[in-house]
Amino acid sequence: MVVPTQQEFDFIIVGGGTAGNVVAGRLAENPNVSVLVIEAGIEFPLEVEAISTPSQAFTLRGSKHDWAYKTTMISRPDYERVEKPNTRGKVLGGSSGLNYFTWVRGSAATFDDWEEYGGKDWTWETTKEYFDKCATYHDDEGLYDPKFLEQVGRGGPLHVSHAELVPELAPFRDALSKAWVSRGEKLTEDIHSGEMHGLVHCMDTIYKGVRSTSGCFIYGKPNVTILAETYSKKINFEGTTATSVTILVGGEQELTFKAKKEIIVAQGVYESPKILMLSGVGPEAELKAHGIEPVVISEHVGQNLLDHPIMPYVRRLKDGYGAENLLLRAGPGKDGSIAQYRKNKTGPASSGLLELVGFPRVDSHLAKNKQYTDYLKANGNVDPFGPGGQPHFEIDFVPMFSDAFQWHFPVPAQGDYLTIIVDLLRPLSQNGYVKLNSTNPLEQPFININFFSNDLDIVAMTAGCRMVDDILTNGEGMKDIIEEDYPWPMPRGSDEAMKRQILERSQTGFHPCGTLRLGKTIEQGVVDAELKVHGAKNLRVMDASVIPVIPDCRIQNAVYMIGEKGADIIKAAYPELYATAP
Ligand SMILES: Cc1cc2nc3c(=O)[nH]c(=O)nc-3n(C[C@H](O)[C@H](O)[C@H](O)COP(=O)(O)OP(=O)(O)OC[C@H]3O[C@@H](n4cnc5c(N)ncnc54)[C@H](O)[C@@H]3O)c2cc1C
């Protein structure tokens, strides 16, 4: 890291992650504007083979590029579980450098629910162009019907394409597609228009066999200064106006950089609330408990943490239907995959391994549960898990044992396996939070995701698992290749035993958001519709923290949208700088 001699920048972006780099790159489109990006991780993550090679993504958990948070996953009177590591990307590009690639935007109805917090500027209609502005979609082989895809990507720097269809996995894909349809569900390629229902070929932030990250927004821009491998310490204020950022270099040396215009916090859902609290913006009791001088009392800072709980489980496949021998176990298959990837970045190693993803509703399974039907009646027959007709679940089918989702179980020594991830998209447990453990900026915050604080989420998860099981066990094609559970039988028949399994096996879907949510007032949230921190000046937040209602799919496309829209909001505030900018 070379410390810049320049002490002042027009804009300082604190956190060079997914959204932060989008904002930095867009603001730097005026070559006369200077931008500083402060990032804790390394500057060139794509030089790390495990990061750039899609099939190795699952190995990054717990690596030195992972923030590896200690996290309370569940905290109920009858069950508690604390886990470590909970993964977030610590590289330039943030979690876009460690995630599992899928590129989905979500349902219009869910983004319309954002209006309650952000007003008219935060609805499907007023955000949808930004889901696409960041990306360019490629279908080099012409495999997909362009009519469903023409709205994906508008010449943005981020290259996305459909998942590599590994030829060796074609029998698995065929069996799953057949089974899905035979149980009354549909296949689709159209999940980009605001409605998502069916089993779809997944789109990924992968192109030509290499991961795409948000770093592409800023590399090579001379007016963006990147301070990698440096930690933010504090935002400094004059009154309630944010003026500068103090950073830590090498763990000890402090440097302060002044922002001539604004400071944009983009450290992600755990570190953004942390730096605000360390800087005096946060709940009164929390600031007082740590002896921090308040700048703005803002009770929602660190609150409203949302995430998707997932139930991962594994079933054995008939030999030859999984990717174990191509990617997991030493032998000629794996050697061949590695050689092919080294030669031209193709083959199994170029795959993110999520080729098929399902977005079902599970009404008929929910209807069998009295707790759910009582709730529905009391709720005026409005389904809480998909009130606008949204899918209840995202179901990921990975035809290989994947320990990234279930690290408590050993990798099986032989055989082929299917990892199933049942991801509850609109959980009713919405009371997670982030607090300070201390005032040391290098110490991780305290995180409680609080999954399953509402029992109905367990009912829904049970229904989701049963829906998937029905497809795998009874569906045409799959029923001939699906075998026993691993490592022990799932107690599918019993609600009580399923509850225990879900509490014990569930994990994060890696989609936390909401800890600095949008709000029309400081009583409702932390940032206003222009993503400005309520009560402060020259300070905005642009990352997953601002999301008020969790998207009904994986969330990176929504985070890129926030970066793009956020950048345009800033540009509009400085017409003297951006009136003629693209
Ligand atoms: C393992 C995993 C798998 C996922 N899979 C998918 C998927 O398949 N599809 C999908 O859509 N989404 C996926 N996601 C979610 C998605 O990637 C994230 O929601 C999104 O990238 C978050 O973006 P962000 O800008 O909010 O934060 P981040 O991208 O995490 O950026 C925050 C940045 O701030 C930096 N930072 C933090 N603290 C400091 C500090 N004190 N000083 C300096 N820098 C700091 C971090 O190093 C990081 O670069 C996944 C996430 C993970 C972790």
Structure write-up:
This protein has 582 residues and is α/β, with parallel strands linked by helices. The chain has two domains: 290 residues, FAD/NAD(P)-binding domain (3-Layer(bba) Sandwich), CATH 3.50.50; 208 residues, Glucose Oxidase, domain 3. Helix content is 26%, strand content 22%. It is built from 17 helices and 25 strands. A hairpin with a 3-residue loop joins β13 and β14. It is globular, with a radius of gyration of 23 Å. The two termini are 31 Å apart. The site of flavin-adenine dinucleotide (FAD) has 38 residues, from α1, β12, α8 and α16.
Keyphrases for this structure?
25 strands, binds flavin-adenine dinucleotide, single chain, 582 residues, 7-stranded mixed beta sheet, alpha/beta, FAD/NAD(P)-binding domain, globular, Glucose Oxidase, domain 3, 2 domains, flavin adenine dinucleotide binding, 7-stranded antiparallel beta sheet
Distance between the termini: 31 Å
Count of β-strands: 25
What's the rounded overall pLDDT mean? 95
In terms of structural class, how would the helical and strand content be classed?
alpha/beta
How many domains in all? Answer: 2
Helicity level, as a percent range? 25-40%
The CATH topology label of the largest domain is FAD/NAD(P)-binding domain
Number of helices: 17
Please tell me how large the radius of gyration is: 23 Å
